[in-house]
Amino acid sequence: MKKENVFQLLAALGVLLGVLSWQFVYKSYVEKTEVVEAENEELQKVVNRLEILDARKDEYIADTERMHQEGEEIVHNFPAGVQVEDMIMYLDNMELVDANDVSVSAVNMGTEVPVIYPGTTTFDGYEATDDGIGMITRQSTVTFTTTNNGLKNVLNYVYGISTRKSVSNVNLTVTDVGYLQGTMLLDFYYLYGVEQPYVVTDILGVPTGTDNFFGVMNGSQVQEVNDAGEADREEGDGENAQEAEESEEE
Description:
The protein has a four-stranded antiparallel β-sheet with strand order 1-4-6-5. A two-stranded antiparallel ribbon has the order 2-3. The protein is of the alpha+beta class. Helices cover 52% and strands 21% of the residues. It contains five helices and six strands; from the N terminus they run αααββββαββα. The protein is elongated and about 115 Å long. The chain has a domain at 80-192: Ribosomal protein S6/Translation elongation factor EF1B (Alpha-Beta Plaits, 2-Layer Sandwich).
């Protein structure tokens, strides 16, 4: 092979080695470098965010405690259950307030319906949880008669008491004597999954419960009756025995 051809071959091999080096070494290095730089950029964003959060750590802790306290106060305003007797006694007490000037003639108790939160449950990429707490509404249709001022006072009464209730609809007509008569949809709300217990409604004037289920005498009274009965039987047996002896002697 001529010397010139050898040089040409060596030059071709050098070019080929350069191409292969760029393709498999340098290009791969550049690609890996770009990936590392992109990861470092994302990590730097996370570091920057954590530094901002750390700088406001005390503020976030204070806000968390405040929101927790506000949440506890909101939960405290809801009962842990609503029974039929709760609704009846509420309406009865509403009638007893003279300023309400209202007379309830009929009540139709509705069923319990879960309240679905329509808003978002995510914030800044984090999913909010309810810790198992949910809300139930129980609607009643109340038929009543009142006056103009009485209606205003009834609405103030519904929204003024701490436990949560609302009026979702009112349908009224004017009677021949000038009273307002009609129906209103009264919603009672309560929470489930809370720590506070259900409080039984105090029904005034109606005795509830007993410490003597069968209405029998207790303890010493029963013993006294038993002792008296045994004494009577012993006395009767003595008299019968004496009478029998007298009969035998005759």
